[in-house]
Amino acid sequence: MSEPYVTFPDVEQLVVDLLKDRSELAGVVVDVQPPSGFDGSQRAVLVSRVGGAWAEDPRLDNPLVDLEVYGPSKPAAHTVSLIARALMLQLRGAVYGEATVVDVVEEDGPRWLPDYRHATANRYVSTTRLVVRPA
Prior knowledge:
Elements: H1 11-19, E1 29-31, E2 44-55, E3 60-70, H2 74-89, E4 95-96, E5 99-112, E6 123-133
Parallel strand pairs: 1-2
Antiparallel strand pairs: 2-3, 3-6, 4-5, 5-6
């Protein structure tokens, strides 16, 4: 008899869905891709899974998630990045569908990282490890 198939949630969508309607991010686009017409100066949090691994024994996913945070100025982008950082750390215990975020560990806090694709961009990037248990 084979082991039951383990299905983990789309962690990018999990983060987007749990952050996008937070009042602290009102007026900020939270998505996996930039909005139409994006030039790097809009307030935005772009979510990307950048790695991580499945821990087979305890049936946990350990995704690494980058937040690319943009704003109309360097101070504005920094402020949004600090808000997004705090909200990410609050995801511990969040339930998404039938999955639960068991733990949240900041791997690399917000760091200034110019985006040379967009001349007007002000960007901070951070990396967070989530531990997710499926249903």
